[in-house]
Design a protein that fits this description.
globular; about 170 residues; alpha+beta; five-stranded mixed beta sheet; two-stranded antiparallel sheet
């Protein structure tokens, strides 16, 4: 991971809003709430960084469910690499049980990496964020706030190999 610079929280929120339009039927309002919660928890401490493929595959994803029967990520969380492996192994069943989530991943798999992701240096425990409360976290994991479908899609299609991924990271760097 290469830290490029410290950034103000206003720049982070403006960037989030630029790439994540909030509208009926999408989950961008949920992701923005995670970003603002992280901002409060970590006192507005943000950095812009670039991640390598190895860094990106180790990001810890929180519980992910669109209200359907099959969870893409369990409540204990899993890495991007593990979620991509699960998706590939169970793609047919997952498409049947979770067609919207499956479609998002397929859509992002056809796109290049152009927009930043939003991460934190620790889960948002104690902040009334159920998806973060039961994560099996190690103190070396970056934790997903926004970009889950993109991360899984890019991992499945090995889009990390030829480029670094720009990310905003909230929290103290180790």
């Amino acid at each position: 991971m290469d830290i490029l610079k410290e950034v103000e929280s206003l720049e982070v929120l403006k960037t989030f809003d630029k790439y994540n339009k909030i509208s009926e039927g999408n989950t961008n309002h949920w992701a923005r709430e995670l970003v603002t919660t992280a901002n409060k928890k970590f006192n507005g401490q943000w950095h812009l960084a670039e991640l390598t493929k190895e860094d990106a595959l180790k990001i810890l994803l929180p519980w992910h469910n669109h209200g359907e029967k099959v969870n893409l990520v369990p409540k204990t969380g899993m890495t991007v690499q593990a979620a991509a492996n699960y998706f590939k192994k169970n793609a047919t069943e997952y498409k049947k049980e979770n067609p919207k989530c499956h479609a998002k991943i397929i859509m992002f798999s056809e796109k290049e990496i152009t927009e930043p992701l939003f991460l934190s240096t620790a889960p948002l425990t104690g902040c009334d964020k159920i998806e973060h409360e039961k994560l099996h976290y190690t103190d070396k994991s970056l934790v997903h706030l926004d970009g889950l479908h993109r991360l899984i899609a890019w991992a499945i299609n090995d889009k990390f190999s030829n480029s670094k991924i720009k990310v905003f990271i909230c929290g103290p760097l180790l």
